[in-house]
Amino acid sequence: MNWVDFGIFLNLFFNGYILFRKQLPFEFYITYIPIIILLFFFIAKYRFPRELLYVLIPLVATGIINILLGNDTVNNFFKIFVNLAVNIVFYRYVMEYYEFDVQKVFRMYLAGSYIVCILGLVQVVSFVVHFEPGYNWRVFLPLNKWDVHVGGLLGIRLNSTFTEPAYFGSSIAPAFFIALYELFFRREVFLTRTKCIVIIAAYLLTFSSLAYIGIFITIILFALNFGALRYFFLAIPIAFIMYTFAYANVKDFKVRIDGMKALFIEGIVQKELSGEMTKGARMIKVSRVLTKIHGSSFVLYNNTHVAIENFKQNPLFGSGLGSHEIAFEKYNLNYMLGGIYDFNAPDANSMFLRMLSELGLMGVIFIFLYITKFYVARNLAVQEDESYWLISNAILVIIITQLLRQGNYTFNGFIFLAYMYYYNRVNYNSYVEKQRETRNAENQETELAKLN
What we know:
Oligomer: single chain
Order of helices and strands: HEEHHHHHHHHHHHHHHHHHHH
Number of helices: 20
Distance between the termini: 54 Å
């Protein structure tokens, strides 16, 4: 791996240090520096991929219309659009730099995942033996957004080089998918057994609800790809057992699940806090409600409410990139709890909710078609090379987790992985076509041999 590779992949695995947090209208991570430098290098080397205009122009057009309608502001729109456009263009150049060799790029991603998993295990072991520099990296590094996360069965939740265990759980989800498959099916194409064990152990030690969601998605995708109903019905009890274990033994997971149930199923906020009441009575009811919900659960519930209300007003094209923050001010339910959970207003805490709010049906239909059109399922007819369906499904895990619980369109190189998903399908189509041509040629030779 050379310095170009390091600069490209650094953004996928490190987000603990921010430059110019207050001086700019957005958080400028140190990993943006190599992206900016390399972008100029790529612009000089490659032609502009004009096909990207089919994505960028609709975003600009709908954004400008929403600014004129008062649904969005110039600053909010261009802050998000510029960031998104840079990532879309940059990572398209990156794929061209690697000659669209998805398997090579994905192997490099797995190598980076393995490294951060090792660092995460060092973090956990250091905590257990009370070696502070080994788990609290702020002791010797100027990490202004990174922190130690307490909790879990061992007293610490693994986050490695990521700011939170949830970000680790999302970003390493594709590596976990591959590790689980290769470990249990005794396949060492992408990872050795030792690397599989390291990645799986690190993933479980996050004690992150998002990581566990990634595990459930992984099991379901395995069941669907192996096709037979017995695999699917086998996956259900396995997922249930894992869910029961996590619910019974991981406090952070349990309180989030209980909070989601109280909010989404029981409707506790509207039931307990709607209507007129005295200040004292409201404080008592708020205190009672707060004992039954978790902050992150309410943040998701609150943003769901905001996104749905904003979608009702702007169903076709949404209210424009960056506008969920404005919609949040109109529709959020924080006033019912005294404003204590005023979080994730810009990113909706979920990419699906943010797209629903900011891009409307246009965004939702786009992501649905993107997932389904470029998905590669396991195909026995081309089982000589299983890499295509494995890569496709592995990346699909992170796409789904991002849609569920990560609202930043570009966080941790998400656009890069989205390109891998797309070009993996393109390469798969070429592979299948070559196989078909080879079989036809062999059949023709056989027929000629029979005639002779």
